[in-house]
Records
---
Amino acid sequence: MAEEREPPPLPGVPEPQDAEDLFVSAASAMEDAERSLSPEDISSSSNGPKAEPMLLDHDPDDLFAEATEEVSLDSPERQMILSDGPSPAITPVTINPRADVFDRSPDQDEDEEENRDTFDIQISVSDPEKVGDGMNAYMAYKVTTKTSLSIFSRDEVCVKRRFSDFLGLHSKLASKYMHIGYIVPPAPEKSIVGQRLGRRSSAVTELDPDAKACLCCRYLLRTVKQPALLKDPDVLQFLESSELPRAVSTQALSGAGILRMVNKAADAVNKMTIKMNESDAWFEEKQQQFENLDVQLRKLHASVESLVFHRKELSVNTASFAKSAAMLGNSEDHTALSRALSQLAEVEEKIDQLHQDQACADFYLISELLGDYVRLITAVKGVFDQRMKTWAKCQDAQVMLQRKREAEAKLQHANKPDKLQQAKDEIREWEGKVQQGERDFEQISKNIRREVGRFEKDRVKDFRVVIIKYLESLVHTQQQLIKYWEAFLPEAKAIA
Amino acid sequence: MMSNLDINFFFEDFRLNAYILNVDLQTDATLQVDISDALSERDKVKFTVHTKSTLPNFKQNEFSVVRQHEEFIWLHDSFVENEEYAGYIIPPSPPRPDFDASREKLQKLGEGEGSMTKEEFTKMKQELEAEYLAIFKKTVAMHEVFLCRVAAHPVLRKDLNFHVFLEYNQDLSVRGKNKKEKLEDFFKNVVKSADGVLVAGVKDVDDFFEHEKTFLLEYHNRVKDSSAKSDRMIRSHKSAADDINRIASTLYTLGTQDSTDLCKFFLKVSELFEKTRKIEARVAADEDLKLADLLKYYLRESQAAKDLLYRRGRALVDYENANKALDKARAKNKDVLQAETTQQVCCQKFEKISESAKQELIDFKTRRVAAFRKNLVELAELELKHAKGNLQLLQSCLGVLKGDT
């Protein structure tokens, strides 16, 4: 959403830095009957990715109208639609307000100081709809790309993709780029394995379509952010062509799937057996850093998930307390006290709403970011592993060469001219391989250095932006709390 | 190692708590009671009850004794069983000191000592100690409130048992009820509730009491519900605060480890979360004090009021039965005198109870309204204070962070 649209609905909340809020999912009726939502209210006002008004443009003073619909992990509530930034012609955009943080396109970015590159592409993933039925049913998403870059054939493209298409794209990119040291953004996951503090086991929860849409969108944005990947024909094809060959190999139980699993296992074994002579301290240091980062991020992620859980619980409990207090107020026969108790019940109800929104912010801002980064770091580690594999290959080639040389020397002694020629050919061949191997290794090392540098820069930016947004959401919550309690205080004092 | 926590306190602030629950306590010089000290031992708490009095009944003007929870219960039960006090709302007995949950946590912490870093361990230990302290303070406050209510009541304060309780500096040898007595109590309660239903069914001629009956019944149930729900709410709040604590520590570690510009960022945010967490914990604690405790107390008081109504109802039934017996005796012309005396006794009892009950119930309402008012006002003020504090912290941190970029 462009900030120039409309002032933020709530006072004191600064505009988001990343203006593009292009995460979209179709509006649908809320399931939460208790919240008064008006689904048809598609306004074109921009909204900060804030905890609250995810969606509707309400009079900020109308406290009860802040009907927000949360997208919770467990309930399939849909999100409201929200305005879209640039052109109203685009399908109604729902804000997954948190998600817009991850938008990489600085097009209408107000923050001019950030040296955004000449990057000019906006992607949105929207309208999850069920296609087909029965066993073959799947979710299709609309992927909209708007760009002025020349590599794209049109300014604006809209295509339909299904989830396995995303996975297919990832596997293609991974096979092309991972082994030369590019960090390929990890594929969006079908379901998440979440670990709740307090629940010993990890729960696999199927993501609801909106969260999935967000995930896919972030995936695409990260992918196009990579200049090399942006130019890749597969990516272009994915974004532009109306029909995409079914990526059958991404199915879990397909032959390719099984092959992948076997490969993964082989890789794991290899990792343990390859002892690399690290000549470059930089790599060793970086690897260690990423290990540590991984551990800490996972821990943080778990804590944040627990916080989301408890806040949701708090919201539920506050709501039930509010009802109980209202009943108590009803049965109280002293009129002023009765009124005050009813007021208390109302305040608590509003607070429960606040808690819910805050929980959403917790989730969408922080938790998702952390989840993404945990997965990204896995990709980074994968790249380092590739380097190790390349080194191993180089070493193997050298060993082979040595052996061939020895064989040649032996043949020379044995004086068999025909075999000698063959041996010499082999030696040449292997010399070439060794050279190639060394070049590959050099190349991958160079690539990795560059990629890691870029990754770190992005990481710094991402975290900074997200955390600031999150703090702003906290600020907002506190401001609302103050408002509510200030309204209640005179009522309490009025009890005679 | 942790289970023998000996916490010796001299309290100032929790005495305030007592006044909060009983706003109208006249601190008149004739009799002032408070708990000046408390000691928590393995499975009991020892309260030092301190009395200042100008009444002639006492040997000295100022003295202290050490009492345990069972002795408070003994005193309360002696009031309940005393027929003379049937017409008064007996101040509800303080709940048993319950440190089990806290102790369990402390123990778990001790067991898990190896699996967490030194800082985490110290932090959690401090928190648990704070929690233990809070529960401790609360239980002391509850006991004190009970004594103060008795001391403030015009009739109960003169009770002999009460004076013994305050003055006798030996152990009262009040042992807790053994199994047989507990079983007896159980049966008594069963009979009482059955009886209560019968008695409640009797329609009261007096509008005031009829109204009070219906009111109290409904009120008591709803207060019970609210009390439970507020407890749950506050527990969730505490869990959320705990999570923020963990997040703060992890951020701190991230900050120290990070090689990029983010390190300063993380450290600052970690610091912020530490502070906001403390505030959140305080919010939960204040809500507990002002809201949950208030509801819990009035749950017990409304039960005591209900008990009063029951006693009155019982007396009414007895009176009516005596009337019927008298009529029967007059009809048969047998034992008329005896029936007459019984009837008179019942009548007197009933009227005495009714008179004092009316006043007690009116006082109950006044007390209740005042207590709610005070607590709700203070709750709102504290919530505001904390929210403003939180806001300021967040805003200043945001200012610094944004300025850095």
---
Amino acid sequence: MCFCILNGSFCWLQPLRRLGGGGVQLSPLGAGLPTLYLHHPGDSHSSQVGFLGAQLPPEVAAMAQLLGDLNRSTFRKLLKFVVSSLQGEDCREAVQCLGVSANLPEEWLGVLLAGMHTLLQQALHLRSTSLKPNTFRDQLQELYLVRDLASIVFGSQRPILYSVAQQPGAWLPHVADFQWWVDVTISTSALAHSLQLSVLMQPKLSDGLAYHRFEAPIAKFQELWYSMALVLKEMADLEKKCECGLQD
Amino acid sequence: VEKSSELPLDAKSEFVDFQWKLGLAASCDSCRSLKYPYVAVMLKVADHSGQVKTKSFEMTVPQFQNFDRQFKEIAAAIEAM
């Protein structure tokens, strides 16, 4: 049992472990699982925000509850199906067969698949520079999932899975390319010898849909530059706050 | 950097306005000392319903010189009539 600060109040939490012996028992907190924080008891002030976020996604927590009693080879087979489905294959029939042969009730199948899918999606969406294998393993240690998942996220299939994860799904497109020009207007039909400076920008988005070319006079460019510096500063401040542990 | 568009060859379209700009691309992300002169043109044309459409395009200096030569030829042809 461990204390955890939840929304400003103390409460008992079941640790993410199989309860009792023989057979899986879901936590008595059941479907109304409180939000679980992925850190060691008594360590709440020094924990880092894991790749799953400060709040463990409910489907991952639900999956973790069932893992204690799951046969390792069944787990591996299910994982294979999740990886195939991430690459676009239809594995529904195969999963059902596995459920029957391994004697797994359908709702457990659903919980396990949802949890694995979310976990892999979250991990694969991050660049390999921001999530290191050791950090990943440590964070998963608490979920008893280590070796198999680490070999998928950092194994030979990573490039394919990473590129699939980057595809537009629920994510907004990102800037794929950015071209710019510094332009001097020498004269126009309306004004001779204007000698105006402006910056032309052309960002290209990852969804490749439309490219926008726009012009910013120097004053507007300065404003844009200032805004970017402000955003960078906010990001740095936020990073510092996360390192010190989130206080609520 | 050139955005070219076809001018409609529809005889019912009417020329409305011609605006131009002589510019110099001083530098860009791939070339810090570009110094590329160009002429940008914004053409306004009215179609048969009277709706004004805008066409924009750019020309390099040699392209503009060719453009200019076309107009001189048109002017010469008019003179000859």
